[in-house]
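Objective 1b. Sequence-to-structure analysis of YgcG family protein.
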Amino acid sequence: MLSAFRKFLFPVLMLMLSASAWAEFQVPQLTQRVTDLTQTLSAAQVDQLEQKLIEFEQQQDSGAQIAVLMVPTLDGTAIEQAALAVFDKWQLGQKGQDNGILILVAKDDRQMRIEVGYGFEGVIPDLQASRIINRQMVPAFKNDDYFTGISDAMESIMALVLNEPTGLTNSAKSNAQNIDELVEKNIVVFFFISLFASQLISRALPWSFVKKSKGRQSLVAGAINGLATGGFVGYHGFPGDVIIKAIFAGFVVSTILSGVMSANRGGGSGGSFRGGGRSSGGFGGGRGGFSGGGGRSGGGGASGRW
């Protein structure tokens, strides 16, 4: 159900909410993999990037595609909405697989975005896209080396895609990476601080049906702390599937710990906070002319400035 919402309903809502903004940003026609409307890249550089993308397409048979669009300005449109508009018109990625990726650069606005298709959210989570932007694109762009920034970003994206030959390999690798990242973000420290706070909150709740039962207090504490954990994970840019897992794990562990602590001291528990969300994408194309394959995007990826 959540997947269906993200894949179908969310893009429709985004289209409705941002239609007026998209009217200001004119999406160009898709004719090739690399489109530079700023004339920043030389013809040789465009050809080199184009050739890399062609070779990438030949190395895998899923129809995954990467496109680059460089424009002078977005005319006041938020870059997230502009990227969705490009996806909507270009239909990046294969229909039903949503395996397209867009690198959008607004040179005069000093903004960039990597828009990731829904089918690639496990391969390139939002945090990974943000890392590519901040570690490869931003430093190069600050030195006016747009070619290197775009080329390095492309290579990182292609490496992530090509190193994931199966869905199982992808999931296992992504989970390991996500766990490492969460540990780096001190999620364990946050979890126990939130658990302590949730217990204080649950004991202060005015609801008598909760106060009369230690079991209910533990459940309430677990639920709220699970949401707090999901909010923490979402705040740090992890994809929706990781957020859902964090909420569930936080709920289960918090409920058990709250029950143990409640039994030892006769106390209760409670907590705080929210979750996050994600995207959908797609694409297809050939070697001569370039055309989309019927895919869409719903907002996955990351944005940055330099």
